[in-house]
Amino acid sequence: MPIQRLSEQTIGKIAAGEVIERPVSIVKELLENAIDSGATQIQIGIREGGLREIRVTDNGGGIPADELPLAVERHATSKLQTFDDLASMQSLGFRGEALSSIAAVSRLQIRSTIPGASSGAMLTAAYGSDPAIERAAPRPGTTVTVNDLFQNVPARLKFLRQPSSEASLINRTVSAYAANRPDIAFSLTTDGRQAFATDGRGEPIATATAVFGVEVGKSALILPSLDPSAVVPGIEATGWVSAPAITRSHRQQLHFFVNGRLIQHRTLSFVVEECYHTLLMVGRHPLGVISIAIDPAEVDVNVHPTKAEVKFVDERSVARAVRRAVHAALAGAPGEDIP
Questions:
Q1: Which residues of 247-284 are buried (b: 16+ CB within 10 A; e: fewer)?
Q2: pTM (two decimals)
């Protein structure tokens, strides 16, 4: 077969396959956009595990009407201008791939209004088609609606789980972000039923209770401020972990954030469990939400297509900061003898 240029639609589908693995990928990208917009309220609604519909509404800064077409173009972003900007990246999104990828594999609608505007704007696009823009009634913030996901990529549908399982993955991700940002009011609705809602008052324990239940909320141990001699320079670990009495048979409710970004990191999971030492039965795991603040120049966020993994310049120092914070929290738990 001779070398030939791929069509734009084919390129879009291939690119979308790297960024949008399943419905939860879309929810995560839209949540991060909402947080980046400065939203203090974020509502998420899904139907049939996100395959039929995903709707994310926020009260953030919105998108100007003349920029809406750019929002669904590949590699168009307001988060950075040059590659060197990654060294000081403060936002959660930066590649400019999410909305274009979503538009390539779904029916997409974006409705947005910027503060002070007399009218809003609405963009619609379907499976890689050119977007259409029209005026809309002014509603503060942005609402993104994604319908009929992967209907033009039937091969992808074969690899998805049952809608209930996809909904569970979405619940886990939204729960993590809600617990990490108690200052934002989150709500998640699944097939018309509210899964949980937080009040956005900035209280970690109240938020943990709303997201994970009363039992977890009562057991949550806040990571305390460390003695100056124990502080690892340039790294701060905050959040909470569960008391040893409250555990799970899996690690799916132990979440790590780096500069606000949800990540997967085996080393950090091991470090936290190591802190519990003999306090947990074999096969049981703690819960928690641990947020790591570090100089952006000390972490590479551009190592994974879905931004789920990062690389630290000094991983040992990060692990040390997390270990000391968790040890301090456990040491303050009533009746616990921490080795």
A1: beeeeebbbbbbbbbbbebeebbebbbebbeebeeeee
A2: 0.88
Sheet containing 107-113: give its strands across: 132-136, 120-126, 107-113, 141-147, 53-58, 41-47, 185-190, 193-197
H/E run at residue 51 = none
Distance CA 241, CA 220 (A): 6
Cα angle, residue 40 at apex, residues 34 and 45 outer, rounded to 5°:
55
Q: Alpha helix (H) ranges present in the chain?
A: 8-19, 23-36, 68-71, 98-104, 154-157, 163-180, 204-212, 214-219, 266-276, 315-331
Q: What per-residue confidence (pLDDT) applies to 82? A: 52
Cα(178)–Cα(57) distance, integer angstroms? 15
**What is the rounded distance in angstroms from the CA atom of residue 219 to the CA atom of residue 208?**
10
- Residue written as tokens 């790590």? 256
- What's the chain's length in residues? 339
b (16+ CB within 10 A) / e for 310-325: bebeeeebbbbbbbbb
The pLDDT score that the predictor gives to residue 337 is 46
For residue 307, pLDDT beyond 80: no
Burial category of 141 from C-beta neighbours within 10 Å (exposed 0-12, middle 13-18, buried 19 and up): buried
The residue among 291, 199, 198, 284 whose CA lies nearest residue 240 is 291
Are 247 and 215 a contacting pair, CB within 8 Å?
A: no
Token digits of residue 283: 């096969």
Name the nearest CA neighbour of 121 among 51, 189, 50, 72.
72
- 78 SS3 class: coil
- In the chain the first and final C-alpha atoms are separated, in Å, by 65
User: What are 153-190's pLDDT values in tens digits?
Assistant: 888 888 898 999 999 999 999 999 999 999 999 999 99
- What mean pLDDT value characterizes the chain? 88
